[in-house]
Amino acid sequence: MNFNTRSRLNDFNGLKAVASVNHNSRSSFLGKENTAAFQKSFTRRAQNQNVTSPNAFQVQASFKVAILGAAGGIGQPLALLVKMSPLVSDLHLYDIANVKGVAADLSHCNTPSRVRDFTGNDELSNCLKDVDVVVIPAGVPRKPGMTRDDLFNINASIVKTLVEAVADNCPDAFIHVISNPVNSTVPIAAEVLKQKGVYNPKKLFGITTLDVVRANTFVAQKKNLKLIDVDVPVIGGHAGITILPLLSKTKPSVTFTDEEVQDLTVRIQNAGTEVVEAKAGAGSATLSMAYAAARFVESSLRALDGDTDVYECSFVQSDLTEVPFFASRIKLGKQGVEAVISSDLQGLTEYEQKALEALKPELKGSIEKGVAFANKQTVSS
Ligand SMILES: NC(=O)c1ccc[n+]([C@@H]2O[C@H](COP(=O)([O-])OP(=O)(O)OC[C@H]3O[C@@H](n4cnc5c(N)ncnc54)[C@H](O)[C@@H]3O)[C@@H](O)[C@H]2O)c1
Ligand SMILES: O=C(O)C[C@H](O)C(=O)O
């Protein structure tokens, strides 16, 4: 299996395609390497719909995506990137804050999807009806000095309420949880879905793509590699030492000194804090997160569309280790997680093996905290 090729395909084939097909531009800001995957999916859809001489407007995109928290720092740029996907027919934007302006603004972009806005509890169910992919960036971000776990008290309830609505209105959707602390909010979502009798572990994803995006960027910079070729799996969870880049598994194969491994690992683990401190109280990563989340949305849509070669890292229910949720590389298919890739955990270096053992207790604690929250709320409500 060539993960390197897959990673390249995962990098925004859709946007490239929109740029070249809809706007006749000669090249996209996303690079020429991503055209092949889009062309494959575009041709398949054209064949399925019996369209000859297809163009992007004739070959109907068929997927509905909802973003919950769409007026926020991540929500807005994410909505823009998803609006550019040729696979999306309907884009639903929900927020408790006014999202009407965001939708009006976005709806003027001449890409095929229809944009609708939904505000407040009353409109949440309409927003979610028949949706294929739900992305949840709703919640508060960190300020300097805070850990992601410091967000638990506010964001746990937000995620719980939103996932209850997802369970009631689109239980078959892929659910992408961005809201922090991901190590706890994903288990909360799982418990809520269980309580509603609709939990499908193959369709619940904690979004850790930003860790991979960062690892790829930092490694390419450090080793002077062509960025589009670099692919570093990042496993574990999404907070501090639970973020574990497997540098020994970097594609293309590259050697690191012990010092480089230490520096890169710590930088990738602290990259979120690096942004929080640079923003100095104005929030956390939004633009890079929107990019990363849009990549995961696009990968999910390609999988739903029948592409059989879609791989991403994600925090999912997993039996790779004794920890019940674990980020690793997964294969995505029409039904969600088709396989959890175990080979990355074989042949780890001593450094990686120690780091893996060290992260497990913290990750386990965060998961248990989420599970306890979801179940305590049920007992007392
Ligand atoms: N998984 C990751 O890698 C990653 C990366 C960056 C940020 N995050 C997390 O994403 C979350 C959002 O970050 P942001 O910068 O976009 O924050 P933000 O404050 O800019 O935006 C959050 C949005 O959520 C909305 N919201 C709050 N409660 C809501 C509810 N009940 N229903 C619908 N919308 C609601 C707010 O009105 C706001 O528009 C934070 O928890 C942050 O820590 C995760
Ligand atoms: O660091 C944060 O609080 C936001 C996010 O989890 C990130 O990694 O950037």
UniProtKB/TrEMBL annotation:
Keyword Transcription: no
Taxonomic superkingdom: Eukaryota
GO cellular component terms, A-Z: cytoplasm
One GO-annotated biological process of the protein: tricarboxylic acid cycle
Stored CDD domains: MDH_glyoxysomal_mitochondrial
PROSITE patterns assigned to the protein according to its UniProt record, in alphabetical order: MDH
Molecular-function annotations in GO: L-malate dehydrogenase (NAD+) activity
Catalytic activity: (S)-malate + NAD(+) = oxaloacetate + NADH + H(+)
Domain Lactate/malate dehydrogenase C-terminal as annotated: residue spans: 208-373
Annotated SUPFAM superfamilies: LDH C-terminal domain-like, NAD(P)-binding Rossmann-fold domains
Ranges in a coiled coil: none
Pfam family, one: Ldh_1_N
Domain Lactate/malate dehydrogenase N-terminal residues, every copy: 64-206
Enzyme nomenclature, EC number: 1.1.1.37
Protein keywords: NAD, Oxidoreductase, Tricarboxylic acid cycle
The keyword Membrane is assigned to this record: no
The protein's assembly and partners: Homodimer.
Entry's family note: Belongs to the LDH/MDH superfamily. MDH type 1 family.
The protein, known as: Malate dehydrogenase
Organism: Helianthus annuus (Common sunflower)
